[in-house]
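W.,

You were right to be curious about this one. When I first looked at the sequence I had no strong expectations either way, so I just let the prediction run and decided to look at it fresh. Below is the sequence, 170 residues in total, followed by the output.
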Amino acid sequence: MNRVKRTLIPSLVLLVALVVSGCATNQSESAISSPTPTQSKTETPTPTPTRTPPADSDADGVIDLLDDFPQDPARSKQLRYASGDPVVEGYPLVVDTAQLDSRLVNWIKTPQAVALAPGVYVGYNPAVTDLAVYLESNTGDGDCAVRNLYEFGGGACWDGVLPSPAEPQP
């Protein structure tokens, strides 16, 4: 019993000392959160950034960052052949099949054709007016050298097919 008293009494004394000194008690919420009179809390408001809308110089609905022709409202995307080369200026365009080389007139069975490059054509479908679609198909009939140059995948070719009179002339 003496042994218990010897260890219990010093422990109780220590506990009482901690309680009296305030180490074992919780401070109130207000004492923790409120600043002392010598502290001053001044917060400068963070300015809200204003978003500037992306520029669209030609007002074609395509922002300049994504517009290959930011000053031309008629064009926004640079069309390319399968070879990666940009489409020749003035192409694609719709031409009358009757104006084409006779070999193509017999081959293309539509009244109109889409000129994809000088001397390369595909039949025109009036229900498909977006001429970029014809380029994306990567098929075309016409001059072998031009077809090889721009890497057309499908179609027939002949040597010496010249552009029709309706096409841009060099």
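Here's what jumped out at me. The helical segments are 2-21, 29-33, 102-107, 132-136, 144-149. And, maybe more interesting for your project: Residues 35 and 41 are 8 Å apart (CA to CA).

Coffee later to discuss?

I.
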